[in-house]
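Batch job 17 of 40 flagged for manual review because the log was empty.
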Amino acid sequence: MWKYPRMAAWFIIGTFTLLLARLPFFAAPMIPNYIEFNPGIALVPLMGVFWGPAAFWSALLATLLGDWITGLWSSLSVLKALGIASMAFTAQYLWDTGAPNAYAGRKHTRSWSSTFHYLHAASAGCFVAAAWTGLGADMARLYPFPYISALILAHHLIFVNLLGIAFYRFSVREVIPDWGNWRSAMENEYPIPVPAHFASVSVWVTGTGACVAGWLIGAVFYRITPLRPYVLGNYCGTGLAVVLIIFLAAHSFLLLRGPLRKIPAKRR
């Protein structure tokens, strides 16, 4: 993507936009010193759908810089950044492959069909981001996975869905006609895949499965659930981390194997 000026510009714009959307709320943390209240998270899947690879790198860098600037930097920051970047990548992938029909996957419109398709793509990434952040908190022995992942998931879903409808429809009307999207910026070097329901279901299962498996393991083996009080410093341990890593590695593999395949030279 770096050889395309528009993609590089979107990377810079996206990074500063996510930073500016986050900074006003850093003084209102959900978890002091680790995770802040951040309505700007609604922009991450939106950028993923429109700006593709540029949004992935913007989300990754903006999260790391945001933690450093606001003093929230900790052992959790890297996995939290990977989770938010994966949210953008998941939204991009599901927009392309999970379309209910070929038209919806290729066109951004203000129709409610297109809007709900966007929300479907964006919501899946919320589970992935929650799983990555919860994994980091549990491995660092800061907070148990069931508690932190459920809190992050509720936060992300609320803002991604409530603000996402307005953001998506506004962007389709005001931004896309003038700016285009990442595929047009990259001179159609990457094809739009045919909608693949199996691929989209697999991405959904691995993303949401990480959270669900973590909650089940926490409840059955460690007696820790999202709503049950716990002792500060409790964590679920290595067994849960291994299961989460398997789910998240499978999810990442599915994302990387499909949407960024180049068009063969003979087809250009």
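Reviewer: the log was empty due to a logging misconfiguration, but the result itself is present. The longest helix spans residues 145-174. Unflagging and moving on to job 18.
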